[in-house]
Amino acid sequence: MTITDGKTAEDAADKWLCAQGRKLIARNLRFPEGEIDWLGWDGTDLTIVEIKASTIDPAVAVNRIDSRKVIRLHHLVDRIRIEHPDWNPSAIRLEALILYRVNSRAEWTFSLFSIGSTNE
Prior knowledge:
Elements: H1 3-19, E1 23-31, E2 34-42, E3 45-54, H2 58-63, H3 67-83, E4 91-100, E5 109-119
Parallel strand pairs: 3-4
Antiparallel strand pairs: 1-2, 2-3, 4-5
């Protein structure tokens, strides 16, 4: 998959998440601990979404979310809490959005699943 395909996938993911009623805060936020692909609100929950795409096999995209990535995402939750204490979400959810399509002309297939959450 090329960088252009990756940008296309991220744009498609953004549109899909917003169509589900989510409210975007920011995309591609970079911190020393790592990057947040998509940060937004789902009701009173703050969601950090890791976006992965594949034109080969959806399992390829899923397998790119390893334990190190999940640990980095948890560190990013801590960063968000420190930098934005005023947001006060009901929960912070970590999710993965997997996009798959067989070629550049096909529609994306979306699969969203939880990779963790924190409540306070």
